[in-house]
Amino acid sequence: MEKKSSLQNGDYVVIKALDDGVNVIGLTRGIDTRFHHSEKLDKGEVMIAQFTEHTSAIKIRGRAKIMTSNGEIESGK
Ligand code: TRP
């Protein structure tokens, strides 16, 4: 069976864009924290993402509904 990082524990972050042009930005894990991926979502589009060995933080620019195991929050208001 494929060995999974302990970070990929089945916890997903669900991001639903409430406007066009929402950016979901992945930031690197480790000594330097930099952008490694940017995904653009249009209104109604959903991204489901995990924290991984490469991704330590997720930054969201624009209006979106963000659902996590810690609760729900809306960005961009
Ligand atoms: N290649 C990235 C990774 O494995 C893909 C990714 C996972 C990602 N979670 C993300 C990109 C969150 C942006 C935001 O870490």
TrEMBL record:
Signal peptide: none annotated. Gene3D superfamilies: TRAP-like (2.60.40.50). GO terms for molecular function: RNA binding. Residues 9-75 form the Tryptophan RNA-binding attenuator protein domain. InterPro entries: MtrB, Trp_RNA-bd_attenuator-like_dom, Trp_RNA-bd_attenuator_dom. Belongs to the MtrB family. Oligomer of 11 identical subunits arranged in doughnut-like structure. This is Transcription attenuation protein MtrB. It comes from Bacillus methanolicus (strain MGA3 / ATCC 53907).
